[in-house]
Write a structure and sequence with these properties.
This protein has 246 residues and is an alpha+beta fold. It contains 5 helices and 13 strands. It folds into 2 domains: 183 residues, Bira Bifunctional Protein, Domain 2 (BirA Bifunctional Protein, domain 2, 2-Layer Sandwich), CATH 3.30.930.10; 48 residues, SH3 type barrels (Roll), CATH 2.30.30. The strands form 2 sheets. Strands 1, 2, 3, 4, 5, 6, 7 and 8 form an 8-stranded mixed β-sheet that branches. It has a 5-stranded antiparallel β-sheet with strand order 12-11-10-9-13.
Length: 246
């Protein structure tokens, strides 16, 4: 991966180990060290970032990266857009697991009901940069004992090593191909809803202000999660963490 290149990026920076690619990317931007679109890759992370205050275990063997895109005016649904691109990529490369791959609103990919990939987005508005962080368990042979019930990797599920560079190339091929339409406001809602982990389930959503319970009714054109709180009352939510589903 040290020599990885993709036409979407003017530069690709690889590091054997970082605290987090997100923090490194922010420092590179604020120090005026880089310009244009660039990708920050790490062989492993010691302090990978998850959603909110969560951490992301990032041992050697996985794909840990932050893509920095310059001059775009993305909305929060960039995480959903990225999740769709990743899901499509993995389904294309590994058709045997396509029916077991699911997208969990707003920023995860699940395989066999276990977390496989996490996606984070943020922006540095003063520098006109939008950051997309991806953590994908590709060739992680073993997981921490505390994680085995809720997380997995492609290597564990497939019983063999996978080509991480092929996966990464295909992710950004799909991303770059669909990006112009997304910038114009198009989001593949039908694809997301078809492959949603929460499709039709009763869920609990924590918005940090309150917990809402109801039936999942898919996402709308803006990427908001729609929940039927009571018969005939459907409310969209633009942020929050789904803490349970059944």
């Amino acid at each position: 991966m040290k020599n990885f290149k993709h036409p979407l990026f003017d530069e690709v920076l690889y590091f054997n180990k970082l605290s987090s690619t997100s923090s490194k990317t922010e420092r590179l931007i604020n120090s005026n060290i880089v310009q244009g679109n660039f990708l920050c890759l790490a062989g492993e992370q010691s302090s990978g970032k998850g959603r909110g205050k969560n951490s992301w275990i990032s041992p050697a063997g996985g794909l840990w990266l932050t893509a920095a895109l310059y001059g775009f005016n993305f909305q929060s649904s960039i995480t959903i857009f990225t999740g769709i691109c990743i899901h499509k990529t993995l389904s294309e490369i590994f058709p045997s697991i396509s029916d077991k791959l699911k997208i969990k609103w707003p920023n995860d990919i699940y395989l066999n009901d276990k977390k496989l990939c996490g996606i984070l987005s943020s922006n540095i508005s003063s520098r006109k940069y939008h950051l997309i962080g991806i953590g994908l368990n590709t060739n992680v042979a073993e997981l921490n004992e505390n994680l085995t019930l809720k997380a997995t990797s492609l290597q564990i599920e497939l019983g063999k090593e996978v080509n991480s560079e092929e996966i990464l190339t295909s992710i950004f091929d799909n991303f770059a191909s669909a990006l112009p339409s997304f910038v114009e406001g198009e989001l593949d809602i039908e694809y997301f809803n078809q492959h949603s982990l929460l499709k039709g389930l009763h869920i609990e959503l924590d918005t940090d202000y309150d917990i809402f319970r109801g039936k999942e009714k898919g996402i709308n054109k803006n990427g908001a999660l729609q929940i039927e709180l009571k018969p005939g009352m459907i409310q969209p939510f633009y942020a929050g963490s789904v803490i349970s589903w059944e």
